[in-house]
Model the fold of this input.
Amino acid sequence: MNTLRRLINEHPRVVLTSFVVAAVILIYVLWPDGEQKAIPHIATAYFFDQNTGELLVLPADTDGPVDTESGLYQGEPAGVRAHVFSCGRCTEDERFVGWLEKPTALSPHTTEQEPASESAHIFIRSVDNPTWVLYDSPAGRRMRDRVSERCGDGQKLRYCAPKTMRVE
Done:
């Protein structure tokens, strides 16, 4: 420590110049030059191809059903939104499709009364049952409850969303 003090006392201009040069280099390296350009990303959602059982990742603002390479499913586009969950991590091995979803306007036939609520005009169904039910109906609530019951003791149901898409 005495050597450093002696150096500063004997050569103050060299020390000051070194400090200024180091500060300028640090500012140059850390300070953004000009306007930073953010890399745009878009939110995504899972969709399910009802013909193949494959999960697709599309922009979250996509209105379903969507056309898929597999063609139509029961006269409609085969891709419907999928709500994917896990009782652990959202890895491909641990996640599962809780229910599929599509707007009621595309399928006017249902076994239940259509609700008065505008937000409730959504059909859901499980992957292994072809019958669509209204989201807010008793059958829809039972279906959603069964999803939350899939996790055992000590496990917590987790909603799995795909990673955002980078826009080039």
